[in-house]
Amino acid sequence: MNPGLEERIEATLAQLDALTEAGKLRRLAGAFARFVGTLGHAPAPLLVACALLSELEGRGHSCLVLADLARDPSPQLGWLDGEWAALRAAAGPLPKNGAGWRALLQACEQVWPVGDLDFKQPLVLDGERLYLRRYWRDEMTVASSIRRRAGSARAVDADTVRGWLDRLFEAPLDTRDADPGPDWQKIACAVALRSDLAVITGGPGTGKTYTVARLLALLFAMADGEGGAAGLRIALAAPTGKAAARLKQSIDTALDELAEKLGETLPLRELAARMGAARTLHSLLGARPDTRSFAYHAGNPLDVDVLIVDEASMVHLEMMAALLAALPDHARLILLGDKDQLASVEAGAVLGDLCAEAESGHYAEGTVDYVARATGETIPAPYRERDGGVLAQSIVMLRRSRRFGGPIGALALAVNRGDAEAARAVLRAGPEEHGARLLWLEGARPADVLALAIDGREGAGQGYRDYLTVVKAGPEAWDMDHQGWVRAVLRRFEQFRLLCAVRAGEWGVAGLNEAIETRLDQLRLIRRRGEWYVGRPVMVTRNDYATGVYNGDIGLTLPDPLRPGSLRVWFADGDVIRSVLATRLRNVETAFAMTVHKSQGSEFTHTAMVLPREANAVLARELVYTGITRAREFFTLVAPNGAVLGQAIAERTRRASGLREALLA
Ligand SMILES: Nc1ncnc2c1ncn2[C@@H]1O[C@H](COP(=O)(O)OP(=O)(O)OP(=O)(O)O)[C@@H](O)[C@H]1O
């Protein structure tokens, strides 16, 4: 090799190592660049692209957009000015624009330009994007399956649908609204019948579960295949155990109400009982320890006719690809979720990509006519489009929140619109206007957060003192058996939660957990002796198939009633509780404070969100919105520096992905 080139490669790898040491690049990124360098001739710029691609993948992007690479990527990566300059200088001149990068990458033997002869190279160049092969394949799987499902026209008798919808839904919408608009819930049910894909999106309390319970009843009512309604195999799933339990509970309650209403016409209770429990996606697909593969896949598909997935915003690209591959061709897929919430921690933003245009509808003439016949509702002109795309015909956005009104709802809406002024106005209106519902602790000090975490605030209930008092007293003091006491403690722990935007520092998860533990110990509410102590809340950070706990599960450490002196961690999935010996749990962390990311799929009576002192790359509108919408009744925003709120609202999380384009192809 030309000695000049070899030196450049050495210098580039040295810079990548320096960035890793400085905490600006994950170790895997440098290692991946090094690995690609061993696969034949590799120019130094290719190594730069590989390291950045791997780094971005770790930050949730499924690909690297070449134009971004041609610009200075430092702001996106949170690098200092000199860091990118040093890497560039080491690698030699880098292409100045996307086209230049494309030409360079196209000539590399480690890169497969889509359309050329495929030698199974590890990198894929598709148009203006560079991928790790796995993510490219996943995007293609998702796009083709979604397109096929959306395009599958099922014959539906609109008059029969209308008859059922009129019985399943309450009489007219609330006429107090000046313009309530059409009943999007009914529209969602009708639209969902027409193809093998339905996406129902909406903010908290817009009735996604309410609607899907009615859709289920409708599917039962109209089932005409083998075995009729009784033969319909339905599966309920969600990304986390907690979300799955919540889905099952809400659907059961809704079906129970409907059964009451419909009487003998449809044996809903019997049908619901056959549905079985809701599962996590991992368990539905038959995840296997220590491998990425699942028991169910294209060669061994799931035995279902209808699959309902809740909290779909949390489903990452790889999981969605696995799910779609394992879904039999004839099955219907119904996705529920809030498109505006944070995307999954892992790469991809599938629901966001699917629903990028959901706000404005784009319903084609055929859909508008069908909806009118099947529901009696008129889709307003702004939501129509003569040549609306196929995908748009399968997506419905619910727009009216029934539960999430008041100041918390107004704040969430303002944040979602990116209107920092309106958000500040809602927050500043204060208790005179909002009562205890909403409080802004602007310019807060660490002592304020501690006081809030432990004692809560007036009108919004106590903080962690509440459940710890019950823990300390023990079951006897409450005249309860151990199980009843565990349930009571777990329920009380769900009343309040402290959410952080960041992990590190005084205002992050690590600093606050430590400060809260120290204070609780001083107050004798806990007795911290080593890692495990009675009352310790923990969050599982990795799936553990041996003990049956999964990433994101939250449990409480309490005495083992059968083995005095030993501790067990108790987890609740809806009404079901289970426990694991504390010492068997290896990948857990204390959870008085947790990240907003990890709180997805959960709600707490009082949620307090802590912003850091300074804005940073993760702090964006979606994160603030997700934090606010975790609050069921009370919300407190803690901001050591009030200006950070405006900066966060102004930022949008942008995830590089080719899915949107592939879906429309
Ligand atoms: N059309 C309706 N008529 C009467 N009540 C409704 C209607 N739609 C929803 N609700 C009620 O509003 C509340 C919120 O509905 P639901 O739980 O289905 O919303 P969601 O969108 O699933 O919320 P989340 O995102 O928080 O899970 C429930 O109590 C539900 O019964």
From TrEMBL:
- Return any one Pfam family short name: AAA_19
The protein depicted here goes by the name RecBCD enzyme subunit RecD
Q: What does this protein do?
A: A helicase/nuclease that prepares dsDNA breaks (DSB) for recombinational DNA repair. Binds to DSBs and unwinds DNA via a highly rapid and processive ATP-dependent bidirectional helicase activity. Unwinds dsDNA until it encounters a Chi (crossover hotspot instigator) sequence from the 3' direction. Cuts ssDNA a few nucleotides 3' to the Chi site. The properties and activities of the enzyme are changed at Chi. The Chi-altered holoenzyme produces a long 3'-ssDNA overhang and facilitates RecA-binding to the ssDNA for homologous DNA recombination and repair.
- CDD domains documented for this protein: DEXSc_RecD-like (cd17933), SF1_C_RecD (cd18809)
Keyword DNA repair in record: yes
Domain called RecBCD enzyme subunit RecD N-terminal: residue spans:
21-131
**Has UniProt tagged this entry with the keyword Cell membrane?**
no
GO cellular component, as recorded: exodeoxyribonuclease V complex
Q: Report keywords, A-Z.
A: ATP-binding, DNA damage, DNA repair, DNA-binding, Exonuclease, Helicase, Hydrolase, Isomerase, Nuclease, Nucleotide-binding
What GO biological process terms are annotated to this protein in UniProt? double-strand break repair via homologous recombination
What does the record's miscellaneous section state?
Answer: In the RecBCD complex, RecB has a slow 3'-5' helicase, an exonuclease activity and loads RecA onto ssDNA, RecD has a fast 5'-3' helicase activity, while RecC stimulates the ATPase and processivity of the RecB helicase and contributes to recognition of the Chi site.
